[in-house]
């Protein structure tokens, strides 16, 4: 494939050759159609967008499959409803893929910075949910707001968080595979 030569046909081939396989591999783990579609789409777009800088030595499919796997793992880590399978996935990861403590601290600093910039009520709901591990109902009772308002604050905070650290995830991913 002529990815680095800005060949539009290469993008079409990339999509047609790999999309279904990548989607199925993500779906086997997540069982969430929309999330899997989003992950595969994002990975293929990132590969295409960064094609000039990429140095792929393992083969394009293997590279894309690894990128999808790590995005799936991140999605699982970020979603509490997938907590029961986190241990299984962590145990399946090769030891050489561990993010070292400096990268982990950088991610924690980015999240702390993001949280401090949230609107006050949104910030309070996020901290009660993520740091104190309170349920939506417990937060609603503590702050005298509805559970729907709690859900809305968390949805907003998590959406903004994803947008703000997506770039950082991709940089970490590139560092892991270089």
From TrEMBL:
Residues 14-81 form the RNA polymerase sigma-70 region domain. It holds the Pfam family Sigma70_r4_2. It comes from the Bacteria. Residues 110-161 form the RNA polymerase sigma factor 70 region 4 type domain. Keywords: Sigma factor, Transcription, Transcription regulation. PANTHER family: RNA POLYMERASE ECF-TYPE SIGMA FACTO, RNA POLYMERASE SIGMA-70 FACTOR ECF SUBFAMILY. InterPro entries: RNA_pol_sigma-70-like, RNA_pol_sigma-70_dom, RNA_pol_sigma70_bacteroid, RNA_pol_sigma70_r2, RNA_pol_sigma70_r4_t2, RNA_pol_sigma_r2, RNA_pol_sigma_r3/r4-like, WH-like_DNA-bd_sf. SUPFAM superfamilies: Sigma2 domain of RNA polymerase sigma factors, Sigma3 and sigma4 domains of RNA polymerase sigma factors. This is RNA polymerase sigma-70 factor (ECF subfamily). Belongs to the sigma-70 factor family. ECF subfamily.
